[in-house]
Every structure is written in C-alpha cells, then in structure tokens.
Design brief:
- There is one protein chain.
- The protein is α/β, with parallel strands linked by helices and about 325 residues long.
- It has eight helices and 14 strands.
- A seven-stranded mixed beta sheet has the order 1-14-13-12-11-10-9. Strands 2-3-4-5-6-7-8 form a seven-stranded mixed beta sheet.
- β11 and β12 form a beta hairpin.
C-alpha cells in the first residue's frame, strides 16, 4: 500500500507505500482454538507455524473504496463483502489491517514477513495509524527482536517497512538478515525515494541488507526436512514486489504482500487499485497467483484483509 500526499504518483508508488467475481472466496474453513495474545490467527504447514500479527488497524485515509478501486462493480463489492465484511464500515469507508507474519519451524528459526507501519516518526506517520505494536506483539508470543533470524520485506512501501529500522537508523532486529528483491531497491534508488536513506542505507551499512534476484529459496529443503520457504517475484504493485511461499510439498501458504489489498481483488483479480506502480502487470500477477493457489488448494496469508487467512475456491 502506498500513501503519501506531497509527492508525485510515481514517487508515491515507489517510496511510501482467479478467475472473476464468480470465483468466490471464503475465510479458511474450520474453527481454530483461540490464538495466543498478540496473534490474530495461526495456521500450519506440517511442522511449520505461520502466525499473523496485527501491527495496526484503521480506515483508509486516501479516499473512498470507489476511488481506490474505480472499476469494481456492484457485484464485485457484494462478493467482497461476503468474504471480508469487516472491511466495510457503516459510513462507507474501507477498514483495513496492517499485518505481519511470523514463520517458525524446526530448529526454532524465526522468520518475519514485513515490518508494519512502525513507531511515531516512521515514514508512514503522515497517514497510517501509528504507532504500530509489532515489537509488543512479538513479545506477547515470547519472541524478542534479537530472536528474529530473517526479515523478508515483500516490498518497500512505508506501511511495510516501519519497524525495519528505528527512526535513528538502528536496525530493529539486530541479528536478522533483511531480504528484499534487488529490483525493488534499484527502483527506489532510481526514483530518489526518501526510503533509501531511511531504511536501505542503514541496513546496507550494517551488512544486514540481502538483495536477491528472482525466485530464491530462503529456508528448508535440506536433508530430511520437507518444508521450504521460497521468495517468489510478484511484480506490479511495485517493480520488485515479492511474495513468500511456505510449502511441505502437499500444503502451501502464500504470504501475498500487496498482490491484493482488498477482498474485492480476491473475488475479481481484474479490479484495479489506484496506487499500483504498473496496473496491467499487477493484474497479471494477481491472476497468476490466484490461479496457482486455487489449483494447489493453497491458503493465502494477506497483509490488509481483516480475515488474514483465506482460501480460494
């Protein structure tokens, strides 16, 4: 998601941050026990646990849903309401969550996907409901910032990098390797984004920034371990956007990032979002991701839906 008020649209998109309406979606089936404090919901892929943590929540501040998704039809909105009713407020606004995901598995490796809106003074402070509570949400489940081994940034918009570094430039997760697509960093640098000195340069200075090129296996797949955690390019929302696939060969969870930001794009992947870097490419990526997820029976872990884990049927 990409929201800033005083810069042009391209800089805005770079710096701040299947099948049609008949392919209905629904919240993941089956009642789960109440999650631990700090956790919105939890799902498993074999021995690997994927936990959704809520950093912040609030209304979309840059226009109405119709302005954000100008080509959505009444049928699209009706289908979306059935999937994520909490996104629709009584006064006609869009309510969204700002979610991060923690992946833990054999050997107690801790992977964090995205770092939320951040504290007061973060790049998202001008529009997002800061301060976020990600560090406290982690502490609530017994994870200290020094326990995080790997941080995967799906992309470098302000509502996804807020807790990557402190406002003074110190990394929030001192032992972690931060994984981002090289294409994403290059696009920010070419645009002269303010996020380069804020987050890219500090992580580069400490040696914690790890730029990958394309599909990259980040964990698992060795010896008798069946699970794999793989970064997969999903461009369009930003040039170097990536999603994360957690798989044991039989079951997949796809952490989507901003491939889709609202349930209306889940029920109809052709619905455009007003704040994409490349709208046509984003639509193509969304169709491909949802088609593959439907074919494999994968569960989607979404950044901004109020029901973070959803199936595609």
């Amino acid at each position: 998601m990409n929201h800033a008020h005083l810069i042009d649209r391209r800089t805005l998109l770079l710096a701040a941050g299947t099948a049609g309406a008949s392919a209905l979606t629904h919240a993941a089936a089956g009642a789960a026990p109440p999650p631990p404090r700090g956790v919105v919901a939890t799902r498993h892929v074999g021995a690997v646990e994927v936990m959704c943590l809520l950093d912040a929540a609030g209304p979309f501040g840059l226009g109405t849903p119709d302005e954000a998704f100008p080509d959505a039809t009444d049928a699209d909105w009706a289908a979306a309401r059935a999937v994520d009713p909490e996104a629709f407020t009584a006064d006609g606004q869009w309510h969204l969550n700002f979610q991060c995901f923690v992946i833990t598995g054999p050997g107690s490796r801790v992977t964090l996907v995205d770092t939320g809106v951040g504290p007061a003074g973060s790049p998202a402070s001008g529009w997002a409901p800061v301060p976020g509570r990600l560090p406290q949400a982690l502490a609530d489940i017994g994870i200290e910032v020094s326990d995080v081994d790997l941080v995967v940034q799906t992309h470098l918009h302000s509502d996804h990098v807020g807790w990557a570094v402190h406002p003074n430039g110190d990394p929030v997760f001192p032992r972690a390797r931060y994984v981002v697509q090289h294409t994403e960093v290059a696009a920010l640098e070419a645009a002269g984004s303010a996020l380069v000195p804020y987050v890219v340069e500090p992580l580069r200075a400490t040696g914690q920034l790890h730029e990958v090129h394309g599909r990259t296996q980040l964990a698992g797949g060795h010896g008798r371990t069946r699970h794999r955690v793989t970064a997969v390019p999903t461009p369009g929302h930003t040039p170097g956007h990536q999603s994360l696939v957690v798989s044991d060969g039989a079951t997949d969870i796809v952490v989507t990032g901003d491939v889709l930001v609202h349930a209306v794009q889940l029920v109809n992947p052709d619905v455009s979002y007003a704040f994409e870097d490349d709208d046509a490419r984003a639509r193509g990526t969304r169709r491909k991701l949802l088609h593959r997820a439907r074919r494999r029976g994968a569960l989607l872990a979404t950044a901004h839906l109020n029901r973070p884990f959803v199936n595609v049927v």
